[in-house]
Amino acid sequence: MNHSYQSSPLSPGTHVLTVRHGPARIEQRYHVAGSGPVCVAHSGGPGIGWDYLRIPELEEHLTMVYIEPVGTGNSGRLPDARDYTVPTYAQFLHQVVDHLAQPRIHLLGHSHGGFVAQRYALEHPDRLACLVLYDTSPVADETFWSAAVAAMDLFVERNVGAHPEVAGYTDALTTPLGALNDDGATAVLRQIMPAYLFDYWGREGEFGPARRLLRMYAEPNRGQGAPFDVRAELSRITAATLVLAGSDDFICGPRWARLLHQGLPDAEPAILKDTGHLAHLERPALFAATVLEFLKNRGGLSS
C-alpha cells in the first residue's frame, strides 16, 4: 500500500489527520484501498497493528478505510496512557468519519474494534448505513474473561499432546500486556495466535507468515475505565447490523454473538463454521460473501 500523504480523503494510500485530544494534538492515520461504497474497518486489540485486518476480497467491491488506532503503528500516542478507552477510540473514529465527508458509511468492527463500533453506533446513528459486528461482544466483564480463560484451558487440553508448547497459552492469555514493552507484548500475541484459528497447524504454511507479522503495542493496554458493557443500550442501535462470528472462536464466539443478536433491534446472525477469531483469513471467500450479501440486501450495495 502506498504510504504517502494524500490530498483527497478517499484516495488510495495512507492518510494522516491531526486530532485534538484535550490540549494535545494527536496524529491519527488511516489507510484506503479498493473502490465502491465506503466501509470503515476498526481493528481489534486494544493495541494490535491494523494490518492483520486487511481484507482484499472486500476491497474488490468496497472502498475500505482501515483505521490505524492511536497508540499503534505510526499513529500518535496519547499523553496519558490511562485514556486508551473505548470512548476515546470512538472519538478518534468519528474524526476520521467526519473527514471522509460521506453522508453515511458502512462500519465494520472486529473484536475490540467491535466494542468501538458499538459505542460509535450509539453516539452517531445518523452516520451509519450498516454495521458489521465481527467476532465481538456487547460486554467484556469478569464473566466474559473467565469464559475466555476456560475456553483457552480446553484448547490447551485438546492440543498439548501434539503441540507441547501450548501448555503456557493460558498463562500468556492472562499476562498484563500493559506491564510489558512492545516487543514483549508482540511475543505474547504471536505465541498464542494458533488458539485464534480453527486449524492453525493444519495450515501452518499459510498462517505462519501472518503470525510472524503480527504486532502488539503495549501502551493501549494501560487504559483505565469501567469494563465495556452496552447490553442495556443495544436497543438504541438503529443501524441494520450483521452479527458475524466464527463457530470455534474461543474468545468472542457464538455465545456473545447471540447476546448481540438478541439485544439489537435490527440484526442478522451469521455463524461461520470451522472458523475461529479470524474468519477473514481462514475462510476469506465465505467471509466476504457473507458481508457483501448483507450489504446488498440491507445497505443498497449493487451486485
Tell me what you see in this structure:
The longest helix is centred in the middle third of the chain and has 18 residues. The radius of gyration is 18 Å and the shape is globular. With 303 residues, the chain is of the alpha/beta class.
Uncertain parts: none
Biggest beta sheet summary: 8 strands, mixed
Helix content: 25-40%
Proportion of residues in extended strands: 15-25%
List SSEs in N-to-C order.
EEEHEHEHEHHHHEHEHH
Helix-strand makeup class: alpha/beta
Gyration radius, to the nearest Å? 18 Å
- Mean of residue pLDDT values: 96
Enumerate how many helices there are, as a single number.
Answer: 10
Strand count: 8
Which quaternary structure do these chains form? Answer: single chain
What's the overall geometry?
globular
Distance between the termini: 26 Å
Numbering strands along the chain, what is their spatial order in the largest sheet?
Answer: 1-2-4-3-5-6-7-8
Topology overview:
Elements: E1 13-21, E2 24-34, E3 38-42, H1 56-59, E4 63-68, H2 86-100, E5 105-110, H3 112-123, E6 128-134, H4 142-159, H5 169-173, H6 182-192, H7 204-213, E7 240-246, H8 254-263, E8 267-272, H9 279-282, H10 284-298
Parallel strand pairs: 3-4, 3-5, 5-6, 6-7, 7-8
Antiparallel strand pairs: 1-2, 2-4
